[in-house]
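Journal club prep — side note

Before the paper discussion, L.F. wants everyone to see what a predicted structure for a comparable chain looks like in token form. Sequence:
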Amino acid sequence: MPRRPKPDDRSNNVERLQESLSNTMENMRETDDYLRAHGLGPEERRDLARQQEQREDAIEGFRAEIEDEAEDRSR
């Protein structure tokens, strides 16, 4: 018997995206706290700053996707 792909269930996309957004923002706060609390070398600071920039980009993407999904849901 052939396997069938699961149907595309988008009913909880907004909630999943909001949870991912929340988790990413929490990771940013934790990283900021860590940076303030620890004396780090320049390379470590640069790496963490790069991660923070990637998180900022991800947050923008999550917000745009949440808006699109919420708009789609209202139709």
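L.F.'s comment for the group: Helices lie at 13-37, 42-74. Keep this in mind when we get to the figures.
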